[in-house]
Amino acid sequence: MQKILAGNQVKDLDSQHLKLCGQESHELMEAAAHSFVNWFVDQNFSLNSPVLIAVGGGNNGGDGLAIARLLTKKSFSVSILQCFESIDKLSPDGLLNYNNLPKSIDLISFENWQFPENSILIDAFLGVGLKGELRPVAKKYITRLNEYDGKVISIDIPSGLPSDDIVSNTAIKADFTVSFEFPKLSLILPEHGEFVGELVILKIGVVNAAYNGIDSSLYYLEAQDIPPLHKSFSRFSYKGDMGKVLLMGGSPGKMGALILFAKSALRTGSGLVTCHMEDSERFIIQTAVPEAMASWGLIPNPEFYDSVGIGPGWGTENRERLLRQFLQDFKKPIVIDADGLNLLARYRDLVSLLPKNSILTPHIGEFTRLVGAAGNHPERLEKAKAFALENQLILVLKGANTVISFPDGRQVVNSSGTKYMATGGSGDVLTGMITSYLGMGYTPENASLCGVYHHGLAGEIASRTKRRSMVASDIIEAIPATYLHLNIS
């Protein structure tokens, strides 16, 4: 998995890479520019759309100048919006790229900025090196750029956003943020959604060895990380090998949650799924999910099951005694969501009964009830890390970029998913998927990583034809396509 570095570590990473590869810094800048331009061309923007590039004096501006040259070679009409005092104030690599600009590119001073109709604005003003408050002149540039109402693309980070903290003043409001190698922490914070827009991560050839010796407990989960985590099964495998899973959930009026829970576990690959519910509701589950078995009352032999998921649609009234008894009898890691989490928040001593490496999957509301309120998302992530460390549990904090906190202090940011997954039942689907992987014999770590990534990918695949009309059942039906997409047999 890719390390996510703090803004002040990026310069160290670049230095390490250049030392290992024998490259010059302007060559790395050129690689970033080529990567951006290839992405830009793939978006099929019209050649009739003028491209305006707001260029600052630092290396982010140097990226913008290199991109200007390369886009001109692709027959785009490019102009530079000057966001630096004078040419002699450019960084060395910025000056090199300025001197290589084609003569057809105009350099436009602030007083003469205009935004033609159907133009595209590329923000290459301020980068990850921003520290402290914005200077008045920087605020002036950003305020003017934000008056533009067309397509805005920020390079590496929207100008004005700090790399690792919450924005305190103003920043560019981008439709796309195209960052390199890994997302800066700032780009995954919900507080910055209006600035970041759609996040795109591009690789520019930084060698893995360059990350050695640079400390970070934050990682980025990407598609290539997933296949090695999966188990292989032989043609002699039978349903028992694929996991005997018990799902505890559902209640009168909330059986839909248990149905989604069960269907997602089955679609993920579970061999045997048993749904435990109230006697009065058993006909619903056996009609809606004929592949699943039903049980009710006491659980006479919990150790029969390879994994257990608890919570979706379960309710909290008269559940504490059953949950307490179950936790005393079952010693393997379990998955807890929804009302299971609400019970833990209400009866705090139950947390100490959870088997080590159990997986909790709260959304922000459930997290607040269980772990505590936070003033912002960075504080929430610190609380998640502390909770996982203290209790030796895995905490999956769901969101646009789901973050998995492990008992050793590592935190992993998921890259898959889409805004269209913000629909009732989506979390129940995730819980079923993680429980399924745990039942197949995956380690709790790998079960959570695979579950979270495949869940997000299924959402992406389903949304291609559904968009905002997507429902949780669509995510379940797209699970098989995730195996095909990642070539998992």
Briefly say what this structure is.
The protein is α/β, with parallel strands linked by helices and 489 residues long. It is built from 15 helices and 18 strands.
Provide tags for this entry.
single chain, 489 residues, elongated, alpha/beta, seven-stranded parallel β-sheet
Helices and strands, with pairings:
Layout: E1 2-3, H1 10-21, H2 25-42, E2 51-55, H3 59-73, E3 78-82, H4 92-99, E4 106-108, E5 120-124, H5 136-145, E6 151-155, E7 176-180, H6 193-196, E8 198-202, E9 218-221, E10 244-248, H7 255-268, E11 272-276, H8 282-288, E12 293-295, E13 307-310, H9 320-329, E14 335-336, H10 338-346, E15 359-360, H11 364-370, H12 377-391, E16 394-397, E17 403-405, E18 411-414, H13 426-439, H14 444-466, H15 472-485
Parallel strand pairs: 2-3, 2-5, 3-4, 5-6, 6-7, 7-8, 9-18, 10-11, 10-13, 11-12, 13-14, 14-15, 15-16
Antiparallel strand pairs: 1-9, 16-17, 17-18
Helix pairs in contact: 2-3, 3-4, 7-13, 7-15, 10-11, 13-14, 13-15, 14-15
Commentary on this structure:
With 489 residues, the chain is α/β, with parallel strands linked by helices. It is 37% helix and 15% strand. It is built from 15 helices and 18 strands. An 11-stranded mixed β-sheet has the order 1-9-18-17-16-15-14-13-10-11-12. A 7-stranded parallel β-sheet has the order 4-3-2-5-6-7-8, with helices on one face.
